Amino acid sequence: MSYNTYRFWKLLVIIIVAILVGWAVPSGYAFIPVPVAVIGMGILYIIKRGVKEIVIDERTYNIANRASRMAFQTVTLAMVLIGATLVALSYGKHPGVGPMGLTLIYSAAGLMAVYLISYVYYGKKVGGKS
Whole-prediction pTM value? Predict the structure, then answer.
């Protein structure tokens, strides 16, 4: 299979999964999204094995690494800033937003903890000091 054919089927599978999940969630079918996503990932894995061209190289991994790090930093910073703002607003006229702010702050702290643990793990696995 050529890379362009793979891209077509990949897009088609993603659209079908998005439509099914988008329909199931507001309809109240909580048992549909997870199996549909797992089946979609399985189909993508199977069709990716049929690609004969080189799809991923070191440059792709480097770009993905930089993009994921930037996304992590941006989202974590936004979560902390929005969470702090909501906590500050909870002391004024909006007492109901305090728990939402704390949830965002604790989620950001959890993300940073997972990042730190994975950084230390991969630092030791690859070698060198972390």
Answer: 0.61
